[in-house]
Amino acid sequence: MTGRELSRRFYEEQVHPRIEPALGGIPHAAAMIGDGSDALGFDDDVSPDHDFGPRVQIVVPSDIDAAPVLAALATLPTRYDGLPVYFTSVSTFNGWAEGAAEITTAAALFRARLGFDPADGVTLTDWLTTPTQLLATVTAGPVFHDPADLLTGRRAAVRWYPDDVWRYVLAAGWLRVDQEQPFVGRTGGSGDDLGSAIVTARLVRDLVKLAFLVERRWAPYSKWLGHAFAELPVAARLSAILSAALSAANWRERERRLCDAAAVLIEATNTLGLADPVDSTPRRFFDRDIQVAPADGLVFALTAAVTDVAIRQLIDRLGGRSDRTPRLPGTIDQAVDSVDVLTNPRLRQAAGPTLGLGHRG
């Protein structure tokens, strides 16, 4: 049984019958929102969570007397189907504690996960300092009960980027490709085959991340990136090409496969209608015997299409290179790769100036 089904069954059989009378008609929500593979629906016999067991978050309005609900939760078993029971907790790193029944409010739950409450509005700083892996957890984890919309509206608010934020993030993703793709040939041509393979692997990861952006899906953390990528519609056209790039025996083959993969994603980006279309045909890198995808064309087209005042000011503030290519650090997880930063709201928000941002706003 998956963690989602196990948790749903525990809530329906054990939790709901106890807390409904204690609430006296006051609506509540129940969910399983968190970091675990089970919340994303990716747990299996090979890779269950380390602390696998039923997980339940009980979410109540902020102005109720919690004592009767906590008293009802205290009568719950601490084990179910032979497994330990987990409840939301503000005192543990991953937000769960074994057998320690707690309740929370929707605002507290989202602030603990994301660092902000979507009900207060989602600012540009919120979008750019929140990694996709956390947006995935708050939108993918199952909600078992929510008649008063304590969670559903908040999840809808962070379901996907507003269009101009999306343009900016896509442009930053394509800029990463533009900046690094010549190095596949520059390293390989100098006899550094290992260096060429390393750059290729980095570019494959960037192209996979772009595939999630094109498909309007939040990319999970690295353990499940390939698994979730395989479920994207565009993966049917990309998977074999990217695998061939990674297994290629020489830099010419890597270069060709990467250009092929980029062409698929350039065409997919064009179909979004977010900017003027860009020709996907590879071109020569200046006067060198190196072929690259026209990723810079999408950087220019997407940033030119931005009309949101705050994002335009950000782009202008960041400036550009001598060839007028914008400097776009993008989101926190496009600029930073540290797990300890990406999973810490305080450190993420403090990284705002690194992204060209000021305070939350």
Describe the structure.
The protein has 361 residues and is of the alpha+beta class. It folds into two domains: 3-157, no CATH class; 163-353, no CATH class. Helices cover 51% and strands 7% of the residues. It has helices spanning 3-23, 37-40, 67-73, 106-114, 124-128, 132-140, 152-157, 163-180, 182-188, 193-214, 222-229, 235-247, 251-271, 295-304, 309-318, 332-335, 339-342, 345-350; strands at residues 29-31, 55-59, 79-80, 83-84, 86-88, 96-98, 103-104, 143-145, 283-284, 291-292. The strands form three sheets. Strands 1, 2, 5, 6, 7 and 8 form a six-stranded mixed β-sheet that branches. A two-stranded antiparallel sheet has the order 3-4. Strand 3 and strand 4 (83-84) form a beta hairpin. Helix 9 (182-188) runs antiparallel to helix 10 (193-214). The radius of gyration is 23 Å and the shape is elongated.
SSE inventory with pairings:
Layout lengths: L2 H21 L5 E3 L5 H4 L14 E5 L7 H7 L5 E2 L2 E2 L1 E3 L7 E3 L4 E2 L1 H9 L9 H5 L3 H9 L2 E3 L6 H6 L5 H18 L1 H7 L4 H22 L7 H8 L5 H13 L3 H21 L11 E2 L6 E2 L2 H10 L4 H10 L13 H4 L3 H4 L2 H6 L11
Mean pLDDT: 92
Supply the number of helical segments.
18
How would you classify the helix and strand content by structural class?
Answer: alpha+beta
Shape type: elongated
Residue stretches low in confidence (pLDDT < 50, at least 5 long) are none
The count of β-strands is 10
Total number of distinct structural domains:
2
Radius of gyration: 23 Å
Euclidean distance between termini CA atoms = 43 Å
Q: Assess the beta-strand content as a share of residues.
A: 5-15%
Helix fraction? 40-55%
Largest β sheet strand count, sense and barrel closure: 6 strands, mixed
Element pattern in H and E: HEHEHEEEEEHHHEHHHHHHHEEHHHHH
